[in-house]
Write a structure and sequence with these properties.
Immunoglobulin-like; 2 domains; rod-shaped; alpha+beta; 8 strands; four-stranded antiparallel sheet
Length: 156
Amino acid sequence: MYLKNKQKALSPLIATILLVAVSLSLAGILYSWSSQNAKETTTSLTETTQKWTDCGAVNLYIETGCRYDPETGISLILMDQSTVAIDENLTMTIIDNDNNIVSKNFAPNFKGKAMAINDSIFDDSEDLKGLVKPLQRIRIFVNSCPDKAATTISCN
């Protein structure tokens, strides 16, 4: 005669408890990661939106009367009609008559709404000398807003 074992094993109960515990742990880890990721994305989006707003308010232009001499360098007046303060470096890109390109970074130093640009504002202005006259194009922009540039067609 065969004896039937009437005891139920605890294995299915323990397995179920462990399965629920592992599932809850994974859910907690996923929630923690996704909430941190959402916070970083929101912060990044806010900063980008602020930058776009600031770039939209940048309004630079070059006064007529740009002068260039291969011996003494460039001389022009940059006007700022922006509704935001320009507190980061500017870049000036020059294309001469032989299509040589020179770029210089410099700190803004506006007196009121105008800034005189000449060799004295650059740390090293030697590469601005010896360009071929007339200069075809001068483009000045805030480094973080290159699409909002002041441009002149020629400089004699």
